[in-house]
Amino acid sequence: MARGPESKRRRLSPPGDGEAARSKADEEWDVEQDYERRPRKTTKKAGESARLPIKTSEGFVQAEVENEVEDQGEETDSFLGTDDDEDEEEENEEESEEEQPKIPVKVQIIQAKEELAKMATLINEEPEEHTSLFKTMAEMVSKKNTCVTVKKLALASQAAIYKDVIPGYRIRPLSEEDKTGRVSKEVRKLRDFEQALVAGYRNYVQTLGVLAKGSKDGSIDLSLRSFAIAMACTMLLAVPHFNFRSELLKILVNRLARRQVDADYVKCRDTLEDVFAQDNDGTVSLEAVALIAKMMKARDFHIHPSLLDTFLHLRLLGEFHLKGSQDRVDRQEEEHVGKKPKQKREFRTKRERKVVKERKEVEKDMRVAEAVVSHEQRDKNQAETLKLVFGLYFRILKLRLPPLMGPVLEGLAKYSHLINQDFFGDLLEALKDLINHAEREEMGEEGDQEVTREENEDEDEATIVETAARDARRRTLLCTVTAFALLEGQEASKAAAGLHLDLNFFIKHLYRSLYSLAMNPEVEFNPDTSLRLADPNFSSDATQLAQSRSKNRVNFQTPMVLLLRCLQPTLLSRAHGNPPPARLGSFSKRLMTTSLQLPEKSALATLALMGQVSKYHGRRISSLWHTEERKGDGVFNPRANDIEATNVFAGTVWEGELLRRHYCPQVREAAIDIEKMMNNSK
C-alpha cells in the first residue's frame, strides 16, 4: 500500500553547531528587547483619534474622540491620587453640576412619584431585603435643592410605609449578649431588619421634629412645617405602641404650648383627644399628661384654655366599672352557641390526653394571670394620670387664673366623684370664694377686666364688660355643679354627715341667679355660637380675631344645661334626706315665673323638671296651685334673695294660667300635665 506524504518537520535549533550560533541569536534577542523598551514618540495631535474608521451603510465614519479625562486616566499608571488631582476633580464636578440643565418642577414631581412608588412596592413586597431604601427615601427630604412638594411626597410615603411595616410590638435595643450570642440564620435576619427599621424610623421622627420646630431665618417653608406636624399626628395615632413615642408627643406639646390657635393647633389638640379616647392601658395618656403638665408649669400656665379641655376625654378609673345587664348575656365571639358541628376525632393515647389536659389548665391560669396584671397596670397608670390632672386643677384654683377657671371647673365637675374625701372641705371653701368673686365681677365692682382688656384690645368697653359677666355666670354654675357632684360616687352621700358638708350656700346662690339666667339671651347657645353678625366695616381677619377673643372659656355645655344639672340634685336628690317644703315651694314658684321668659326649648326642659318635682313632692307643694288651700300668712316677697324670706306659701302659681295659653303647643300640654298631677296629689 502506498505511503502518504510525510509532514514537514520544523527545525528547533539554528543551523550549525557550537556556541557561535547560540551567542548570535542571543545578541539579536537583546537588540529586540532594547528596541521594545524604548519610549514611543507619538506625533498625535490634540483631539486626534487613533482609532480605525467604522464601515457603515453610508460609508466609512471616523470614531469620536474620547473624553480627555479618560485618556488622562489611561496614561497614568498610579492608582493613588494626589491632593491636586482631587481638587481638580471637585472643580470639574462643580462645573458639571452647574452645566447640568435645570429640570422643571413638574418633571421633578413626576419622577419623584415614580421613584417613591417603586421603592414603596419593593419594601412592601420584601421589607427584609430592601432595608436600604429607608435611607434612600430619607435622603430625598434632606437634600437642599429638592423642591417642597417632593419633600412632602417623601414624608407622606415614609409615613404610609412605616404604618404598614411597623410590627405590633415595641423593638428593644440589642444587648452585648444578644450581639455575641449564636443564633439561627432566620433570627439574625429578623434582628437585622428590626434594627434597620428602628434606625430609619428614628431618622424619620427626628426629621419631623426639626421641620416642625421651624427656623428663625425662615429657611424652612411654613407649609412644610405644617405638613410635618400633620405627619407626626398621623404616626402617633397609627403606632402609639412603637418606639420614639415620646418624641412624637413632644412635637405636639411644643405646638400646643403656643397660644396662637390655627389649623396646626387644632390638629394637635384633636389628635391628643383621640389618643386619650383610644388608650386602653393608660400608658400613652400618662406620658402625654406628664409632658403637658411639665410644659404648663414651665410657661406659668400661659396657655390657651382649650388645652385643658383635652383632659375631659381621658379614660379614668370609674369608666370600666359598669353594671351587667339583667336580661341578656354578653358572649365572646369564640364561644359557639347551639349544637357544635361534628369534628374528626384524633386518636390519642391515655398519656397524651393527660398531657393535653394539663397544658390546657396551665394556659387557662396564664390567661387569668395576664388579665389580672393588665388590669392592675391599667389602674395604676390611670391613678397616676388622675393625680397629675388634679394637681394641675388645684394649682390653677389656687392661682385663680381667670382664662383657665372655666375648663378647670368643668373638669372638676366631671371627675369630682374621684376626689379623695379628705379634700372635700378645702375644695368647697375654694368654690365658695370663686362664687363670691364671680358675683362681684358680674356686678362690675371688681374683676379681672384689666386682663380682659389686654387680651381684647380690639373690642369696646361694653363688649368687655358683657364678656366678663357671661364668663362669671358660667363659672358660678360650674362651681355649683361641682359642689353637688362631690356627693356622687364613692359613697360620699353616706359619709356626708361625718364630713359635715353644707351646700346651703350654693343652693341660695342658685336661687338668686334664676332671674338673671332667665333673662340671658344666650341661655340656649354654646360659647362657640355667636348671636351677633359681623361688623361689615371691619375686615374679615379682624372680625374673626374679635369673635375668637370674645368666645367663652368653656366650649361644652350651654347655660341652660348647667342650670338643669344644678336643679336636679337640689330638688330631687335625697343625699341629705328629702328637701324641705320651703325650698321646694320657692324654687317651684320661681321656675314657673322664669318659664314665661325662657325660649321654647328651655321652657320645655324647665317644665319637664317641674313635672318630676310634682310627681315626687306633689303633696308638699300642691297648695301653691289652689288658692283655697293657702297655708302661709302675710305677703309673698318674690324678690327676696333668701329662700326662707320669700314666704312662698302666701302666694300662688298664677303663671300656670299664662303657660296654658303659650304659643307653643308642647308648652301648653306640659303646663296642663303639671296641673293634673297637682290635682291628683291633694
Topology:
Elements: H1 19-37, E1 54-56, E2 59-61, H2 68-75, H3 83-99, H4 105-125, H5 132-142, H6 148-165, H7 176-180, H8 185-213, H9 222-238, H10 245-256, H11 263-278, H12 283-298, H13 350-399, H14 402-415, H15 424-443, H16 449-455, H17 461-485, H18 496-499, H19 504-512, H20 514-518, H21 540-550, H22 559-572, H23 581-595, H24 600-621, H25 655-659, H26 665-680
Antiparallel strand pairs: 1-2
Helix pairs in contact: 4-6, 5-6, 5-8, 6-9, 8-9, 8-10, 9-10, 9-11, 10-11, 10-12, 12-13, 13-14, 14-17, 15-17, 17-22, 22-24, 23-24, 24-26
Indicate the mean pLDDT. Answer: 76
Number of domains: 4
pLDDT < 50 stretches: 65-84, 95-99, 320-336, 446-460, 538-555
Helix content class: 55-70%
Question: Mind summarizing the main beta sheet?
Answer: 2 strands, antiparallel
Q: Compute the number of strand runs.
A: 2
Total helical segments: 26
Q: Return the string of H and E elements.
A: HEEHHHHHHHHHHHHHHHHHHHHHHHHH
Helix-strand makeup class: mainly alpha
Give the termini distance in whole angstroms: 157 Å
Strand content range: under 5%
Tell me the strand order in the biggest sheet: 1-2
Question: What's the overall geometry?
Answer: elongated
Radius of gyration: 43 Å
